[in-house]
Request: fold
Amino acid sequence: MEKPEWFDWANDEKKAGEWIRSNNPEWFAQVCQLLFDHDPMMMTLVGEPEGYAPEVGSILRSLPQCMNVDDVQQLIFNVFTQWFTPEFAGGRSQYAEVAAAVWENWKQQQSEE
Reply:
């Protein structure tokens, strides 16, 4: 059976996420919790914060390129669109609250280093 075309991409993303998690497990867990608390897709697909690990890996990998909360909102929206499909991901506006929370968390991480 042939692998679906997204298979390699998803594997690479998971590896990157695992590397980020191993370097900063506490921060990784915090962002999982933020996504869980805000549930941007509004569909409680995930039963525990850990269920967002693949998406968090993708978000944290690109977060250093974000200059403001608007960039973070676009990033999170893009990540959810990639992982779930545009139909499931919904509209970009759904990601405003979680983007604000992740941006605050990121700025805090920067000030602690």
